[in-house]
Design brief:
Layout lengths: L1 E3 L1 E4 L2 E9 L13 H32 L1 H14 L2 H12 L5 H17 L4 H22 L14 E5 L4 H4 L7 E6 L7 H9 L3 E3 L4 H4 L5 E5 L4 E4 L3 H22 L15 E6 L17 E5 L13 H15 L3 E5 L27 H6 L1 H14 L4 E6 L5 H21 L8 E6 L2 H5 L1 H7 L2 E4 L1 H9 L17 H16 L4 E3 L10 H7 L3 E4 L4 H9 L3 H12 L4 H12 L1
Parallel strand pairs: 3-4, 4-5, 5-6, 9-10, 9-16, 10-11, 11-12, 12-13, 13-14, 14-15
Antiparallel strand pairs: 1-8, 2-6, 3-7, 7-8
Amino acid sequence: MKYQGSPVSRGIAISRVFCFHDEPLRIDERTLEEPLRDLELHRYHSAIATAKQHLEATYENCRICDKEKAMIFQAHIDILDDIQVREEIEDAILLDGRCASWAVATVYDSYAQVLASSDDELVQERAADLKDVSVRIQKILSGNEPVSSLEDIPEDVILLAYDLMPSQTVSLDPRHVKGIITEVGGMTSHTAILARSLGIPAVLGIPDLLKHVKNDTLVILDGIDGIIITNPTDEQLAFYESKQIAFLKERDYEETFMPRKPITKDGLQVDIHLNIGDADSSRYKKFLPYADGVGLFRSEFLYLGRAELPSEEEQYEIYSKVLRNLGDKPVILRTLDIGGDKKTDCIPIPAEGNPFLGLRALRLCFAMPSLFRTQLRAAFRAAVNGNLWLMFPMVNSIEDVRKAKEFCREICDELEADGIPYGKNIKIGVMIETPSMALMAAEVAREVDFASIGTNDLCQYTLAVDRLNPTVRQYYQPYHPALLKLIAYVADCFNTVNKPISICGELGGDSRFIPVLLGLGIHKLSMNTSAVAAAKAVICNTDYRQARILAMKALTKATEDEVRALLNSSAT
């Protein structure tokens, strides 16, 4: 039997399957009468105490032998101790009469949904941790074991589960777990992030697969095309064994390009930058020697999942730390991008019918000028510690550009008057994420020092499709000819006036599509660290003249399928 899912971690695995049955919990949504609420509150407090006892014991076991795993459980203890979350759950029980499990699920899920919608992997991991703690408490309340263990998983298997929590995955060994399949999840889920970091092939999002696959079934997992095959034929086995060998050779080959300069065969130098989302250099430090800078530093991680706004000093210290880590290399700091799919308790945003079209990013900063000014002051002050570039997200008009620049001038005047050191030659740029700004690219290029195309949102707004909604996933088409034409026009406008233009969305790290981007005039790419080696390999093996021809052909296509067919034919 053949199944189609989402390929989230590249690779091929052929092995027996281990079915990990850990079904989602059933939530008791009864409303309790007042006499029962105090008792339910006591049950909740007892569950918290039990959960903390388990977590502390697990932390101590990991602390000596594996400090990195111990940090996961310390984070879970911190989440469990969060006073604001506890108070919200207590209010839901006492004031609303919710059962403890219902209150726990509702409160934790509300926070997790905010974090999970972020583009930043670190923030997404925090969402998974929240869900993990929530499930732990709910299981205790239901009388079940707090967390099912994967420590006794057989060796050399493909793991099949409904979903995986962080505390379940800490014991996964990539030497023995050959692949991961889940019924839920996508490219930005915790399981996807884990699989990529461990180099384990993974396909996610195949509903009800546990009902159709039995333990020890022979399975082929294709993490390149998102295909799962159960009980394969001899012909299928032979084909995928050959594909597996080819993939492993290709991956080893790509790694050899990591230290090389990304220069095409005919001499075009391409800049490779990193997308990062926090100040923890351990996540990107080893890649710094092989990158030209940071093309996207997402500042919203400072605001997500907290009740109080970060102070100017806190922001100054974090921005300064990143700048010092990068030395003379540029760091493009994207100002606050909250709203739409990202909300936080520390910034009150009214409920909106369509938040993606509402008070988001720069609009939010204009509506809350003190918020914006605090971040700008911190950024300009931190700029003395390195090479800071400032970029505004979700700009939608030339008026927006000029208004944001006026804020910057006012901040500089304040710092100058107060005698506070600040960066006086910061480059100012914008994200191009809406069709309006793409079509106004010539005018934008006269107003700013640089720009970066956010292909995730540009695709979403161009095709009028919610990129986070799985029911319309087939309409989110990143290779759509309309998007290609917008990218080509923006690149031409900026290249004409010799100003930097880059890509920092998912397409920037898409090794399959990079030749087209080069041909369209994008010679600066920003990507997640995991994509750097493959991107460099593609660039170094690309003839820029041929890339131009490929891009011109892509622009003539009428559908995304036709573009994909063109890419397939060019790769053979």
